[in-house]
Amino acid sequence: MHPRRFPTRRPGLPAAALTAAAALALSGCTASAGQAGSVLTVSSSAAVTTLDPVKSFSTEAMYLGNVYEPLLWKNPAGSAEEYTPAIAESWRTSADAKTWTFTIRKGVTFHDGGKVDAAAVKKSILAAKKDGGASFIWAPLDSIDTPDPSTVVMRLGYAAPMERIVSSTYGAWIVSPKALAAAAKSKGYYEKKGLDGGTGPYRISSYTPGKEVVLDRYAGHWDRAHQPSYKTVDVQITPDAVTAQQMLTSGEVDFTTSFPLQNVKKYSENPDYSVLDYPSPFNFVAFFNTTRKPLDNPKVRRALSYATPYDDIIAVGAQGYGTPAHGPVPTGLFPHDPAAPAYTQDLEKARKLLAEAGHPGGGFTLDLTYASENQAEARFVPLIKDAYAKVGVTVNVTSKLFNQQWATAKADPAKAQDIFVLYYWPTYSDAGSDNLYSLYHSSEKPFFNLSYWKNAKYDRLVDKAGTLTGTDPAKAGKVYGEAMDILYDQAPGLSLYDAKAVYVVPKKVKGFAFNENYPFTVFFRPMKSAGA
Length: 532
Fold this sequence. Notes:
Blueprint lengths: L23 H4 L10 E7 L16 H7 L4 E3 L8 E3 L2 E6 L5 E6 L13 H14 L9 E8 L2 E6 L5 H5 L10 H9 L16 E7 L3 E6 L12 E8 L3 H9 L5 E2 L16 E16 L9 H10 L2 H8 L4 E2 L23 H10 L8 E7 L3 H15 L4 E7 L1 H10 L7 E6 L7 H9 L15 H13 L4 H18 L2 E14 L2 E2 L17 E2 L3
Parallel strand pairs: 1-10, 1-11, 14-15, 14-16
Antiparallel strand pairs: 2-3, 4-5, 5-7, 6-7, 8-9, 9-10, 12-16, 12-17, 13-17, 18-19
């Protein structure tokens, strides 16, 4: 269906280290100009793999979402409107959802002074389609026409929900043609001080690799009514959540995007802080290696699915900040269905199925790997080992850096792990074309389908649903539901839990909001000090 993503999207960050997502247009907050000279100091775990907005496909979205803008913003689940105009002030589609017309907002300028028009938008999108880290999101796009400076017409090879695609957190930023040309000639162009190609309310002032990102307010931003309150945002890159907690509580920083989950609850009673938690697009899954005995037997996989201690995993791994998964589609994202079948722990059913599969009392050993960087996985993996021991299955646990875990799993399925624990999130707000496709669709060489499972009926259903989403999302949801029924029956992997996004926010900082569609971005424009 689509070529898929690069492994840099899965660094195995701790659940406590999730960065927040919010946008002014999505939050309803209006910043005060009275704090024009102020500085917001921030601690963030978000590493920068690249500041190139086209190639970006990792946690640098924390910063880029303030510097660049898409055609549309996707509003949080439950909002009155599904989208908010950004670079495009309006849009329409044909009845067959194969022709999409966007009207470009007048008066928008890039940080380098260039004018944003239809030609610039076309160049940006074509660059993302050709070279983007998330280039696959543009797979439906056949061509772009620009009949006048304010009109962009996208023609698709098959029906697709382009609103979701053009509002993606990856691969959909509108970038200056000057910056695109300069980056093509100069390696590392975007990492140089003060260079970016955005239109957003902030521009990059300086970047010190591994240490600091400084953003300054862009005075020429098109939305004059909602200028940022903070003139400067100084972000200290802090990989360790405990250190980030210390920086926040000592007053060294005003805000942090990471906090140790095990320390969160005591702050809920502190009058100086607010503890906020939200449904997020992040979830934990575990793949069974379906190419190896005894995991090639669906009854064995179902038995292990029943043996898994889901409630304990949420209590210990997520420290209570998680919800039961209903398949691999996270809560709040299409096509999540709270009625989708889900396993719960039942050791008697597990023992019965093992006996029916020819393994009474278990009697076999499995090798499980998880990402050593992921604190949540480190907490809950021992629970899986202990639970499986109760049905006679021995689990050997190995922690590896995610890139090493990934390389081993990709090299040779026959020699790979038996169980692969993975922390996953979709590229944009369609977990059908992403999670259900990426995690379990058949492929010649494994990418994110690290169960190595192949099921032709499942593939047909997922492919069919993907072509219906643009014209009949309700029908697409039903077809995806049929596919999830197959996942439940065949059990190629475990859907462990949907993680919540959790933040400890000082009450001296106002305006922070979360949007599950931009999970790695803190949008600073709506934020302001309590006295503003």
